[in-house]
């Protein structure tokens, strides 16, 4: 996704993880539109906690209409 950084969409509010956490040994950088396993497209960040971040992804193989 070009030169966009993960914090282009998600940082700026109180209590959010900082962009410095997205580095080797830290959080894995995820961008809107990323596709994993040629199947799951990242749609939205739902939240994060101490040990995880939860992302909403669309199954590109699904035929369900939502």
Compose a concise summary of this entry.
With 66 residues, the protein is mainly beta.
Characterise this structure.
There is one protein chain. The protein has a three-stranded antiparallel beta sheet, with no helix packed on it. The mean pLDDT is 77. A hairpin with a 3-residue loop joins strand 1 and strand 2. It contains one helix and three strands, in the order αβββ. The chain has one helix at 7-10, and strands at residues 35-36, 40-48, 53-59. The protein has one domain (7-59). By secondary structure, it is mainly β.
What tags apply to this protein structure?
66 residues, mainly beta, 3-stranded antiparallel beta sheet, 3 strands, 27% strand
**Overall form:** elongated
Relative helix content:
under 10%
Number of folding domains?
Answer: 1
Radius of gyration: 13 Å
Q: Characterize the largest beta sheet: strand count, sense, and whether it forms a barrel.
A: 3 strands, antiparallel
Annotation field: number of helices: 1
Pattern of helices and strands: HEEE
Average pLDDT, rounded to a whole number, is 77
Enumerate the strands of the largest sheet in spatial order, edge to edge or round the barrel: 1-2-3
Tell me the β content: 25-35%
Give the helix/strand layout.
Blueprint: H1 7-10, E1 35-36, E2 40-48, E3 53-59
